[in-house]
Amino acid sequence: MHYFDHSATTPLHPQVKNLMDEVGELHFGNPSSVHSFGRKARALIETARKQMATAIGCKPQEIIFTSGGTETNNLVLWDVARSDKKHVVTSVIEHPAILKTLENLSDFGVTFTSVGVDEKGLVDPQDVENAITDETGLISIMLANNEVGTIQPITDISAIAKQHSIMLHSDAVQALGKIPINVKELGVDCMSFSAHKFYGPKGVGALFIKNGIKLKPLIYGGSQERAMRAGTENTIGVTGMGLAAELAAKNVVTSADHFHSLTETFKKQLKKILPNAVYHGHPNHHLPGLISVSFPGYRNDLLMAHLDRRGIAVSSGSACSSGDVKPSKILSAMNVDDDLNICTLRISFGLGNTLEEVTILTKAINSSLEQIRSAA
Ligand SMILES: Cc1ncc(COP(=O)(O)O)c(C=O)c1O
Question: Best label site of 244, 268, 314, 344, fewest CB within 10 Å?
C-alpha cells in the first residue's frame, strides 16, 4: 500500500507515538489535581504549550489547546455571534469548518462576505478591503488551501486589518510543517492548527490568540486553558501535539526539499504518460508536496477506484468532499470548467514517501489510464 493523501491526515511520527504511549501508561493524572500525578500531567501540558509556541513564534500563554482545527475555527467564529460587529470577511475557498460554521451562524445574526480568488487560487487583499463594512468584526482568510495548496498573502491582509482595526484570523491547519510559520511576522491575531496534519494525533488542535485579544469560550465548565476551553485536558494528545509541532518546525526546510524532489520527479514522469495533464494552484506561492492535477477525459472517481485497487491512496479534491462526484467548489472558484474539475486528483506527499514510490505511483496511474481507455 502506498499513501499519498497526507493533506487528509498523516500517520503518527514514531517519536510522537512513543511519547504518547509513555504518557498514557505512566502520566494519567488529572492536570488540575494538586498531587504529584496531577503536577506531572500539568508539567507535560505546559511543555507542549512551549513547544507549540516556539514552533510558531509566540509566547506559551498565547496558545489554547482544543480538539482540532474544526473546534478552533468554531471558537473564533462563535465569538463574532456574541460581539457587536457581526459581519465577517472570508474567502470562497475556506474549509467547511469556516464556511459551514458561518452559514449556520446566520441564526445568530452573523453575516459574511466571501471574496473570490483568481485562477491560481489567490485572494486579492484589495478585495478583502473592499468587502469591509462598518459592521465587520473579523477577517478570516486561510494561510494555505487544503485542495490546491495556494498560500495566501496574509501579511498584506494583516496590514489592511490593522488599518481598519479589525481582528484577523487565519486557518493554518494545512501549513505547519510545510512552510515556516511565524505568527508575529504574519501579523495575525488568531490562528488555527491541527495536530493530525503534521504527524501528531487526531482530535487535538491549538489556537494562537495574541496577548490582549479576548474571545468568549465556546465550551463552558472548568477553568482549564485559562477558562477559554473547559474540560479535563487531553494530556496524551496535547503532549503528542507539542512534540509533533517541535519536529515539524525544526525539520521544515529539509521536509520542503524532500517534497520538492518528489513533486519534480512526479511531474517529469507524468509528462511522459500524459503530456496534457493540467496542474492547479499558484506556481510560486504553494505548499510543497501538494499536487492538484487534472487528467483530462478521466473522471476522478473512476481513476481513484483504479488506483485504490492497485494499492494507491490519493484523494479527489479535499477529504471532506470525497465520495462526492460533484465538481470541487474550490476549483470552480478558480475558473476551472466542470469537465476538467471532475477529472482532478489531489496527491499529497509525506515525509515517509520515497522517489521509488513516486515511480510506483506514476506506473499505477499509467496502467489505470490504459485500463480506463480500453474499457471505453
Ligand atoms: C484547512 C483546514 N481547516 C480545518 C480542518 C479541520 O481540522 P480537523 O480535522 O482537525 O478538525 C482541515 C482538515 O481537513 C483543513 O484542511
Answer: 268
Answer for the pair 172, 146: CB distance below 8 angstroms, yes or no.
Answer: no
Give Cα separations from 99 to 146, 156, 238 (angstroms): 14, 22, 27
For a mutational test of ligand 1's pocket, the pick from 7, 94, 95, 140, i.e. the residue with the most ligand atoms closer than 8 A to its C-beta, is: 95
Domain boundaries, the chain: 2-9+252-375, 14-250
- The answer to whether 51 and 198 have CB atoms below 8 angstroms apart is no
**Secondary structure class of 256 (helix, strand, coil):** helix
What number does CATH give the domain 14-250?
A: 3.40.640.10
Reply yes or no on whether the pLDDT at 312 is more than 50: yes
Classify 199 as helix, strand or coil.
coil
pLDDT at 317: 63
For the Cβ of 174 lying below 6 angstroms from any atom of ligand 1, the answer is yes
Task: Answer whether 74 contacts ligand 1 (Cβ < 6 A).
Answer: no
Average pLDDT rounded to a whole number, residues 113-135: 98
Q: For residue 323, what pLDDT is reported?
A: 56
Are the beta carbons of 210 and 182 closer than 8 angstroms?
A: no
**What backbone phi and psi angles, to 5 degrees, belong to 370?**
-60, -45
Is the separation of the CB atoms in 200 and 14 below 8 Å? Answer: no
Distance CA 287, CA 3 (A): 18
- Please give the Cα distance from 28 to 30 (Å, whole number): 7
The architecture of the domain spanning 2-9+252-375 is Alpha-Beta Complex (3.90)
CA 51/CA 58 separation, integer angstroms: 10
Best residue among 70, 148, 320 to mutate for probing ligand 1's pocket (most ligand atoms within 8 Å of CB) is 70
pLDDT digits (tens, 9 = 90+) for 246-260: 999 999 999 999 999
